[in-house]
Amino acid sequence: MSAVAAVSGNLGSVAYGLAAIGPGIGVGIIFGQGVQAIARQPELTNVIRQNMLLGFALTEALALIGFVVPFVHK
């Protein structure tokens, strides 16, 4: 049994773990910058919150795609 064959069963798990890093960082940046923006301009809270939630939804969609692709690729 070669080393590649031993690792191939776990590649989906490794791929999802790596795919979750980017969206995790992205969500942190979105909410961190959103809180700073609301602190600087409280009168725009509704607009900033709306943009934060839209960015969060798009970022989480990337995480879900990263979860599904290893299973579909087989």
TrEMBL record:
Q: Which InterPro entries match?
A: ATP_synth_csu_bac/chlpt, ATP_synth_F0_csu, ATP_synth_F0_csu_DDCD_BS, ATP_synth_F0_csu_sf, ATPase_proteolipid_c-like_dom, F/V-ATP_Csub_sf
Query: Where does the record say this protein resides?
Result: Cell membrane
The protein's matches in Gene3D superfamilies, at most eight in alphabetical order, are given as: F1F0 ATP synthase subunit C (1.20.20.10)
In alphabetical order, the GO MF annotations are: hydrolase activity; lipid binding; proton-transporting ATP synthase activity, rotational mechanism
Q: Which residues form the V-ATPase proteolipid subunit C-like domain?
A: 14-70
Give the record's membrane topology.
Multi-pass membrane protein
Q: Which residues form a coiled coil?
A: none
One GO cellular component from the entry?
Answer: proton-transporting two-sector ATPase complex, proton-transporting domain
Per UniProt, the keywords (alphabetical) are:
ATP synthesis, Cell membrane, CF(0), Hydrogen ion transport, Hydrolase, Ion transport, Lipid-binding, Membrane, Transmembrane, Transmembrane helix, Transport
Q: Which domain of life is it from?
A: Bacteria
For this protein, the parts annotated as crossing the membrane are 14-32, 53-72
Chief location of this protein within or outside the cell:
membrane
Which residues does the UniProt site feature Reversibly protonated during proton transport point to? 60
What does it do? Key component of the F(0) channel; it plays a direct role in translocation across the membrane. A homomeric c-ring of between 10-14 subunits forms the central stalk rotor element with the F(1) delta and epsilon subunits.
This protein is called ATP synthase subunit c
